[in-house]
Fold this sequence. Notes:
alpha+beta, Rossmann fold, D-Amino Acid Oxidase, Chain A, domain 2, 9-stranded mixed beta sheet, 5 helices, 24% helix, globular, FAD dependent oxidoreductase domain-containing protein, FAD-dep_OxRdtase
Amino acid sequence: MELSDSPTDSHPYWAHSVEDFRFLTREEALQHPPYDKPFGMTYTSVMIHPGVLMPWITHDIKSRGGTFETRHVATLDDLDADIVVNCTGLGAGKLAGDTSVYPVFNPSIKRFVCVESHGQYTYILPRHADGEVIVGGTAQVGNWSTANSDADIAAILARAAVLMPEISDSKVLHAKAGLRPATSRGTRVELDPKRRNKTWVIHNYGHGGSGHTIHRGCASEVVKIVRSLHANL
C-alpha cells in the first residue's frame, strides 16, 4: 500500500506488472491512521533483497561461462570488443559525455508501508532473509555526497516512528547512503549511433531508484539490440 498527500492522475507505468492494482478511495485511504493521507494505491508485488539477488546473478553469469574483470576505463574508445553494454550508472555522465546524468542522494537505515508527504518518501521494508528492516529515506537531487548526515538520519527515524512507533525502541545496526543514477530525460536504453573503432556500444543507464524494478525489461531490450547487431556481424 502507498499513501500520498496528492492524487495520481493516471496509472503508474508499472501498474500492469503487479497483481490486484487499484487506487484507494478517499475513505479507504483515511482508514489508516496515523498516516492521515487522503490518496493512495494498493497492489500485490514481490520484494527484492539486493544482498541476495546480486550474488545469485553473479553465480548465474559465471555458471554460463561469463567472467568478471575489474579495471579503469577512461573512455569508451578504450574498449576492444564487438559489442559493449554501458551500464555504468553515474559514471555514464563522464564516460558517454551525457550531461543529463545526475545523482539522487538517498540514505537508509537498517531496521511495507510507503508514505509520501511534502515530496519526501518514508518507507519501512522488512528483510526476512536476515531479520533486518530498512528504513528510509530522502531524494536529494544533485547531491553528490555519499556521507551520512546525522540530521537526515534523525529525520528519517522520526518520520518512520510516526508510522510505526516500535521504530523508536529499535537498535540502529548501521546507516548507508547511496546515489541513485538518474537522468533528466529518463532511462537510456539504446544503441549509440557512433561506432567506436569496431565496437558497437549499447547504453543502459539512468534507472534512478528503479533499477531492480525495471532491470529485466531493460535487459530484454538490450538483448533485442544485440541480436539485431549479431545478424549483421
